[in-house]
Backbone:
């Protein structure tokens, strides 16, 4: 076995160890005998060195007929067809139903508000998804399974846990962010069901009425024996640093640090999820919005950490461009995170220099 630069790779070399991306995604498994396509795939992930066996092997003969028989699954399709995703989907749906029951019992004062017990399923889901490297692989493929409160709350909690971990916050704050994300919308349990499940966009009056969920949620927990920072997440998760949020138009440092994490997670999850009145919004459209609003509306540490990490979760994903072309994301532009480089067949499209072209869907 020897360590070799990716620039010196040749067809016939056998991979000695599993090859992973910088965010722990499997590129090629141990034992793969490299062909030209494998080498191109390794280089597209900006890897530097890999371990290979000393002796070269015959390159597998992938005839045209064999290639045609192999389904050309995208990265997302492979995730959705995996046993791990199928189990994760079943578990998060079961947990959403359990969370609904728990929230309703808490609201009716038939169950105590036990943070540790409520968040325990979230940590199980986090581990089941593969930690920070796998959470978004799972969530990005659950876009048709969100709802107004319970699945949304679980998703936001998982994203909050991931952001706090990316920020390298101490364990206590990661736990607070996880709990804050799970409970942030508990006030919606007090909203009329016909409004929560409405199939059309809210009217201006209905939107104003729905904004009361933050105050109602806070009033529900203000006297409970839970950390005040969790209460702040419920009350402040719609506040923005420029004062344009609600209910109190707080600015800058007036907004709780943990609540700032929930704000970003809540917006990303809500916008990229399917609603009864609209299809999911492309994640890169949401990332572009975050780039534009940036530190004016969001905590700089939170938003910069989130953006610099979230884009890397899309490496190797197949996307559709506004031109109708499809291709794989092979490189993230650090100065234009929403505009990566896409490999379309033999051509590369650098969206940072092709401003008239954009990503319209992850497929």
Residues:
């Amino acid at each position: 076995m020897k360590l070799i630069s990716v620039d010196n790779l040749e067809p016939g070399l056998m991979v000695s160890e599993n090859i992973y991306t910088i965010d722990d995604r499997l590129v090629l498994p141990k034992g793969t005998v490299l062909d030209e396509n494998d080498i191109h795939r390794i280089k597209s992930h900006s890897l530097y060195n890999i371990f290979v066996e000393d002796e070269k092997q015959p390159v597998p003969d992938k005839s045209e007929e064999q290639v045609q028989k192999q389904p050309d699954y995208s990265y997302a399709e492979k995730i959705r067809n995996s046993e791990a995703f199928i189990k994760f989907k079943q578990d998060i749906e079961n947990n959403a139903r359990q969370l609904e029951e728990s929230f309703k019992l808490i609201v009716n004062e038939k169950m105590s508000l036990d943070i540790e017990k409520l968040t325990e399923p979230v940590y199980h889901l986090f581990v089941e998804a593969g930690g920070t490297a796998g959470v978004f692989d799972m969530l990005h493929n659950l876009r048709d399974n969100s709802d107004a409160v319970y699945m949304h709350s679980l998703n936001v909690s998982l994203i909050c846990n991931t952001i706090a971990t990316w920020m390298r916050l101490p364990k206590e704050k990661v736990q607070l962010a996880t709990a804050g994300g799970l409970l942030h919308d508990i006030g919606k349990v007090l909203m009329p069901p016909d409004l929560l499940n409405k199939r059309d966009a809210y009217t201006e009056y209905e939107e104003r009425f729905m904004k009361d969920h933050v105050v109602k949620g806070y009033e529900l927990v203000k006297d409970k024996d839970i950390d005040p920072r969790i209460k702040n997440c419920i009350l402040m998760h719609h506040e923005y640093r420029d004062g344009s949020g609600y209910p109190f138009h707080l600015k800058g440092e007036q907004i709780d640090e943990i609540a700032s994490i929930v704000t970003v997670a809540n917006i990303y999850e809500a916008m990229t999820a399917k609603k009864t009145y609209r299809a999911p919004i492309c994640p890169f459209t949401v990332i572009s919005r975050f780039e534009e609003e940036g530190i004016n509306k969001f905590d700089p540490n939170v938003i910069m950490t989130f953006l610099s990490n979230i884009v890397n979760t899309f490496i190797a994903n197949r996307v559709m461009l506004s031109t109708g072309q499809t291709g794989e994301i092979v490189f993230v532009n650090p100065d234009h995170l929403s505009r990566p480089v896409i490999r379309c067949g033999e051509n590369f499209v650098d969206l940072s220099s092709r401003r008239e072209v954009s990503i319209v869907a992850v497929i």
Residues 83-107 form the longest helix (25 residues). The mean pLDDT is 91. Strands lie at 2-5, 19-20, 26-28, 49-52, 318-321, 326-333, 336-344, 347-350, 359-362. DSSP finds 15 helices and nine strands in the chain.
